[in-house]
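Example record

The entry below shows one chain as it appears in the dataset: sequence first, then structure tokens.
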Amino acid sequence: MKPPYEITANMLNQIASISEKIGEIKAAKLIKPPAELRKLNRIKTIQSSLEIEGNTLTVAQITDLINDKRILAPEKDILEVKNAILVYAQLDTLNVYELESLCSAHKLFMTGLIDNPGKLRKTSVGIVKGIEIAHIAPPGEMVYPLMRSLFDYLKNDQDLLLIKSCVFHYELEFIHPFVDGNGRMGRLWQTMILKEYAKLFEFLPIETLIKERQQAYYAALGKSDKSGSSTVFIEFMLEIIDKALDDVLKSQNVTLTDSERIHLFYDLIGGKEFSRQDYLRYNKDISSATASRDLKNGVNNGFLIKTGDKRLTKYRFKNKEAYKN
């Protein structure tokens, strides 16, 4: 069954703005940020999403953990971050359309933090804010069929993935399928869905903007709960996504390396054969000599296979794994 929500004029305007900015980002070759920026954005994503849940670690401390340095912090907070690092490192192994993958990600997130990580709850739960019960989740026996229905909607409904990513995020929080860890799972899975819509979302720290507007985030969830529809939450999250893309356009003035140009070209052409001229048509801001050097380095570094000679020279990528950083 399709979750309840309405497509509003506000949503359509936000979607138009998001689509326009994605086009600008692609034109500016900002689809895949440089390696160091990707690493920093991933760290900011982890720090922000966990801070929303009460984790105390800073960006600097998480960076130290990734670099195998010791830090002083509560053991639980350190374990939460280590688990999150594992999850985000394995995004490409997860199937966004499968409930089993969602449970696998939850198990990675929550191992050592709760009993039975990765298992759907079978008991009743209520979410308490202060001294008040803010939300009573559906009974335990309804969790599995509700999640199956939600994944069926995600996989088969004809609405834009942009919309479905927000709906899924809200509905997961409403169903509350796990005893704990639902907030981080909702934000993670929205990123997974957005990555299906446009690859650039993999490294976009949307969680940072959610953290900055944390009270508005919870207010949007609450208003959607009261109305029985995710409309308000969809509008809020589309606004967050639009702002995140705006920040990319304002902040990134990137000079790409030869390796980064090669990697971006793979995203465009995949396993097809191509010539130096094809490569130059995509990279119009480099010289012929630079293009030749890029391709030579790609061959030497094992990214590319070269066939033919001189004007008949052709290239193709070995496979998806060969070109990854």
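Notes for this example: The first helix runs from residue 9 to 27. The domain at 258-323 is CATH 1.10.10.10 (Arc Repressor Mutant, subunit A).
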